[in-house]
Amino acid sequence: MSVQINPSILSADFARLADEAEAVRGADWLHVDVMDNHFVPNLTLGVPVVESLARATDTPLDCHLMIEDPDRWAPQYVEAGASSVTFHVEAAAAPVRLAREIRAKGARASMALKPATPIEPFEDLLPELDMLLIMTVEPGFGGQAFLDIMLPKIRRTRELIKKHGLQLWLQVDGGVSAATIEQCADAGADVFVAGSAVYGAEDPAEAVRALRAQAESATAKASWACDH
Asked: Would you say the C-alpha torsion 156, 196, 67, 168 has a positive or negative sign?
């Protein structure tokens, strides 16, 4: 599994989203933060913007739904053009059913855990997923400081993935930057969401390349990435 860098448009200029997508053309995915002002105390965008953005870029969309009732709404984001849809386990009524519905509609199914939510109770759900997202800040706002107390949780999640022999991507989101990405890669993450570290840079595309190089270097040295 190679390193993937997903710039978060939460840190982009919302008035110029098509241009901002083009500015990070070398990225693997565009991370789209959907917030409803209920599950998290912030309001961002919804299905119509995702539809427009999907038409405006060739980069696949990775939609992170920080919303209540994802069982109802998540399938609509697949229909809007998202190639990966992440729902929060804290908000989902039937996570297995929802993951299967997302997959059936043709997208990758992903589940997110807030910082205080442990991974262990959801071990049996992992085979139903294509990606697991470990939040490394409290969801709701960009630009927050990385919570290094999440590193052991990332390690434990990687161990569970290896235990079950899964081809499951492990994403981290929140405070990922040049100062923290190597720690995340060493702990077991392989998909990295970066907002202000990319869009706050003078050259966003170069920031993506630099973050990728750091993560690849750390992964090459990481014990979890070695064959046993």
From this structure: negative
